[in-house]
Each structure stands twice: as C-alpha cells, then as structure tokens.
Specification:
38% of the residues lie in helices and 21% in strands. It is an alpha/beta fold. The protein has 2 domains: 30 residues; 303 residues, Aminopeptidase (3-Layer(aba) Sandwich), CATH 3.40.630. The longest helix has 26 residues. The radius of gyration is 21 Å and the shape is globular. The chain binds zinc ion (ZN). The site of zinc ion has 7 residues, from helix 5.
Length: 337
C-alpha cells in the first residue's frame, strides 16, 4: 500500500516533532540535578559593595550602553584603565588598551533602506592586564568578560547591566582575590570590546597572541551572571573537556548557587535546548582548540532590552555567583596543568 504524498509529509513532520520533544525532555532531565550546593558560601568572600558599585557605574546612563566606538565606550575604557591600575594588574601589552579594528556586515542593513550594510569600527579596544604566576608563569588562564553592549538605538538606552556589566564586575572581583592570593598560573584579565558585533574582541586577542596557543590553559568566560530568580547558573564547556566537571563540582559544593552543566551539546541532540558553544567570547577560544568554561544565566525578559538595568539584577544572587566564580578560578589554578 502506498500512502498519499500529503500523508507521508504529515507523518514526517509528526516524527520530527516527537523526536525534538523527546530530545528536549531528555536533555532537561540530564541537567535537572544541579551539582550539590552548600547552604551558604564557605568560599572566599568578595567585596559585595564594590561588586555592585562596578555594575551600577558601567550600566549608568553616563556610559550610554557602551556601544563599540561610542563616547560611552570611551568612558567604560577610562573606568577599566583606572580599576586595572588600582588592582595593580600588569599591562598585557604596551598598555592595558589593545586597539583593533574590524568591519561589521549587517544582514538588517542589506534588507533595510537607509541602513549601512557594512560599518567600519576603526577604534575598538580590549583592556587586558595580568597577574604573573608563581609556579607556571608561561601557562595562562584567561578570565574574560565583554564590556561592550548595544548603546542607544532609536533614542532608547540599552544599559546592559546583566549583559555584561555583571561579567566585568565579577572579573574585577576575581582579580582582586588573586592580588591577595598569588596564583600558580599567570592569570590574564581580558575585558573584550565588540562582542555584540561578532565576538570581535576575542578574535583580535587570539590573532595577536604573543605566545603559542598551546600555552593557553583555559578561557573562563563570564557573560550575564547577575540575573536569575531561581538561584541557578549554567556552565558550558565540560562536554568538550570532561576533566573540568569535577573541578566545577568542588567549587559548587562550597557555594550556595545551583550550578548546572549544559548548553554545550548540538541542538540536534537536545531538541530545542540551545547550544551556547559559539554564543559569546569563549567561542573563538574553542575554535582555536583552547578549553573553556562559560558561566551565564538562562535568557530572561530583560535580555537585549532597555530594561536590562541595575535595578533588575538580583544583588544577593550576583554576590553568590561572584563568590562561586572566585572559587572556580582558584580551583582551576590549583589543579590545571
Ligand atoms: Zn553578552
């Protein structure tokens, strides 16, 4: 018996639908059990007031949403310059500022009248400093967070408090901790520009790396770490480097945030659960064969919206996450080769 063509198509669609739903259900079950968390953090304590202050400053209207090349971006750069210097970080190159340029091609520009298809960004800049390692100074752990965001569009400010003033503030908290607890590896603190325009800062950093990529032990990338109502954060990357999972678990067990491993399997396997492997600055590191751990929250209503304000982050959650991240960084430094 031969089914009519219409029927065959309907059965195919139904089968794909059932597969996606089953894959999604299995994936959610796989990540449903968070790593065991402590009732309260027994890990290193970050300066919570400073942490929140840094986010408030970066996400203030004065910084104009920190779009690459804008006046607000330059204010963010002056802020990073001052904070890096106050922490006593050593400039990674001739100065903290590592200028680069790129051209951004916009699909929207191709389709819409009056919008440019290609835009040149001649004056982007990463801000990079480091603390030298005592035992393995030629092996580098990069702690990265992009400081750029969307700026002002159609007269509306996109302050980017969670995305990603929060990651920058957490990165500065990690730097402050290592200043008092000298690391074994050299820890590089990289505030990347141009992430929102195609992970440009991370690409520029890797293209200009002054030593072989094999000396990069890991990229610990922080992007959106302050806003979640369920005390939950995801970490992606352990699927590619399973040896990292027990190290994350060690830190999770000393902290009060629920940590879930996930968002790093192809969507073909996970149904509709997103794969974040290429979603932020850890992507170019992964493409270059460097291990990564990416920490970030599930998308929320304020994601890429004018409402991503300081008032909408969760201060207690964010402080817990910063403590967790300090512990993760310290654990990686203690155990990585
Ligand atoms: Zn981001």
């Amino acid at each position: 018996m031969k089914l009519p063509r219409r029927w065959r198509i309907a059965i195919l669609f139904a089968a794909v639908g059932v597969y996606l739903l089953a894959a999604r259900t299995l994936e959610l079950r796989r990540v449903a059990l968070p790593l065991p968390a402590a009732a309260a953090a027994i890990a290193p304590a970050v300066d919570g007031a400073r942490l929140l202050d840094d986010v408030r400053t970066l996400a203030s209207a004065d910084f104009g949403g920190r779009r690459t090349g804008s006046e607000g971006s330059r204010k963010a750069q002056a802020f990073l310059q001052q904070r890096f210097a106050a922490l006593g970080l050593i400039p990674f190159g001739a100065a903290y500022a590592a200028p680069f340029s790129f051209t951004h091609a916009s699909i929207k520009g191709l389709l819409a009248h009056g919008k440019a298809y290609k835009t040149a960004y001649p004056a982007a800049a990463n801000y990079i400093g480091y603390i030298a390692g005592s035992a393995r100074p030629q092996h580098f752990i990069v702690v990265s967070a992009h400081y750029d965001h969307l700026g002002i569009k159609d007269g509306r400010l996109y302050p980017g408090a969670d995305d990603n003033a929060s990651g920058v503030a957490a990165m500065l908290a990690i730097a402050a901790w290592f200043k008092d607890h000298p690391p074994r590896h050299t820890i590089v603190f990289a505030a990347f520009d141009g992430e929102e325009l195609g992970l440009q800062g991370a690409r520029a950093f890797l293209a200009a790396l002054p030593f072989p990529k094999a000396q990069l032990a890991l990229d610990l990338n922080l992007d959106m770490v302050s806003h979640n109502d369920r005390n939950e954060i995801y970490v992606a990357g352990t699927r590619y480097t399973p040896a990292l999972a027990p190290l994350v678990a060690q830190a999770a067990a000393r902290n009060s945030v629920n940590v879930r491993l996930g968002h790093d399997r192809p969507q073909l396997l996970t149904g509709t659960v997103e794969d974040w492997t290429g979603a932020s600055d850890h992507g170019p590191f992964h493409e270059a064969g460097v291990a990564f751990l990416y920490f970030g929250v599930e998308d929320h209503a304020d994601y890429h919206a004018p409402s991503d304000t300081f008032a909408h982050i969760n201060p207690a959650f964010f402080t817990s996450v910063a403590n967790l991240l300090v512990d993760v960084a310290a654990t990686l430094d203690a155990h990585l080769k």
